[in-house]
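Holo model, glutamine. Inputs:
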Amino acid sequence: MTKYIFVTGGVTSSLGKGIISASLAKLLQERGLNVTIQKFDPYINIDPGTLNPYEHGECYVTDDGAETDLDLGHYERFLNKATSQANNVTTGKIYQTVIDKERAGDYLGKTVQVVPHITDEIKRRVKLLETQSDYDIIITEIGGTVGDIESLPYLEALRQLRHEVGKNKCLVIHLTLIPYLSAAGELKTKPTQHSVKELLNTGIQPDILVCRTEHKLTKELRSKLSLFCNVEKNSVIEAIDASTIYDVPLNMLKEQLDLIVLKKLKLGKGKEPELVAWKDFLGRLKNPTSEVKIGLIGKYNELQDAYKSIYEAFVHSGAANECKVKVIPIHSQALEDTEWESHIKNLDGILVAPGFGERGVKGKIKAIKYARVNKIPFFGICLGMQCAVVESFKNVVKLPGVNSSEVNPKTKNPVIDLMPDQLKVVAKGGTMRLGAYKCRLTKGSIAAKAYGRVEIFERHRHRYEFNNKYLKKLEKAGLKATGINPESGLVEVVEMEDHPFFLGVQYHPELKSTVENPHPLFSAFVKASIKYRRNNEKA
Ligand code: GLN
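Output:
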């Protein structure tokens, strides 16, 4: 008997539908319900894997190898539960399924149309998650803003689904903005009234309004919104700007969003959410006993969302260490100029970010050399690990013409090379090595010590890999392969012995860090950075 909650957005984008959905899901989970969240994205790309990070932020990868919207990262970080392919649907996927069916003859004799074929496929996708688990509640976040042309089929599907299953089984939460006009000193409800009207045009009356605001909503204002938007007074919820996204579940608890939802869905209250681990995390996050500065060397730094999961993993691991981690974004291209050192001195740790293509690689290699020589804690992720291998072969082994063949396809010594099964791949969408793979760690290595075990599963997204022809020379480069895929023999982890903390991983640990389970490698890296800083202060 799964019930459905849809979350729509009004007035503007970027109001935080993902955070509100994840916060509500967290509270319902704490009350003992089995909840999942999915995201519907109204663009025609099959997935965001082919989108520029500047356009869409980070591409989040699931265990089962889906390239998805970064909101899925929030769902996992809040619920501490893995998502899957089925948790992210795009208009591209919907149309592809319908067009494939048309070609297969499934609709023979019929004109294939947005209504009912596309809307039926949308409804099927909502329910697809029910085949995975006995969910009590599925929360579906509809991307975009009400009024967008692209969202219309989704809203029509939602209207139909609600009609079919009945009101007690399907709720609509509309997240909207109450702007504050400083000249008038007032919060304004009109844009919300208009966006609810727009929703009503599609035949949908929202049950709950969640209002993003910079200032507290007065009783009068709540009454006004209730009256003009046809929403019960207690269903006008204030979502005041928070200092951290991790405060939002507690704010929603105060506003009783979870209780209102359960009442409307005619579900029991369950147990009172205690959020013990969550509050413990917030306590440590807000009361740090130390501070470190970590340089994030990347090339998409203009947009924080491009490295979303890395930033969040530092929030989790910082709290675990009771340490305020100040992440300093450093553009790798800025390290290519003569003033480069000024950008990276005074750091307590250096993280070289994942990435694609040649641009910015030189700067990344410079930063790695700096970390190696000055014994600053270093953490390389994916391209960051590959650059660390190139740096050592180039500057320690002094092998001529060494490079990654991604940077120079004609390089004499491709220490990082295309994986054999990538050689024939031409199409760009969904063709990388994606998803979770097993990796076996060397006992006693930095990685094994951090994880506290030797068998791990981590998520991947890449085409290039360490070239095993150079495995024997790796030690000459001062590096050790301490993590290997047991099936393919691919090197997944490299470490430097003669260094306080120098670790490169081919996978993306940041994707598995959650509030309740901060990633052990991030925690170990922060710990090493705290130690580095303390030693420096003493010196
Ligand atoms: N561009 C590199 C590869 O494809 C690294 C990818 C990444 O950093 N995610 O192997």
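The two ends are 64 Å apart (CA to CA). Residues 354-356, 382-383, 406, 461-464 surround glutamine (CB under 6 Å).
Archived with the compound record.
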